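Hi W.,

Here's what went into the run:
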Amino acid sequence: MALSTDTLGELREIAARYPQKRSGLLPMLHLVQSSEGRVTPEGIEACAEILEISPAEVSGVATFYTMYKRKPVGDYHVGVCTNTLCAVMGGDEIFTRLKDHLDVGNDETSADGKITLEHVECNAACDYAPVVMVNWEFMDNQTPDSAVQVVDDLRAGREVRSTRGPALCTWREAERVLAGFPDGRVDEGPSAGPASLLGLGIARERGWTAPDAPAPAAVSGGDPAPAVPEERAEEPRATAESGDSTTKAAAVEEDAPTSETAAEKKEAD
Ligand code: FES
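Here's what came out:
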């Protein structure tokens, strides 16, 4: 089905934001998804025509990134992280339970058209594992039971909030935001939770700071500056006496034989 006049106008509006208009392709594809529920052949043709590139080039992008869908997505996209940390913390069980509960396989939509279930890769929220994403909003520290409750509430039309605050919108609404049309809710919820800020708190407590930026000479081809200034590189050793777990690891590493000493030992044997 052809795109509406409004959608075509907004696609042109996105392209016009960029000095090189083809830079607008990613948000344009999100807008197509918001309007059509997926990346349709007509959407690909429209993007190609506006950007003056070939449909094959647009299709190549749309099939490369996993956030672009060629099959219709339900009202809510539920992504269960089954990457390493989430998997061992229960992500695999959550995914299996949701598959059974919704009677769908991976990347399939429930019969009522409400939920599309997909296992997703790490969303950089490992400190809250296992994590479920609903339309790319975080549902932290989930269990099989809590995940079932989330999808049941969504299917029943009850308001569901991300564990970080914002009320969940539909997938199409979320796609419109990703296309660069704000919904005015960007400041809902915290920007980072306690688990994500723990390392920062420890660094502040101990007076750690980031290393200085490399000297300009290193950038322009002079002697390369050390990646870590010497005084910083010494820090773990200096605190090794304090006996914390980080520095114990450093001490173990220090005791480990180098490949040279191991080779020497073998020769000696
Ligand atoms: S492994 Fe799941 S968010 Fe990183």
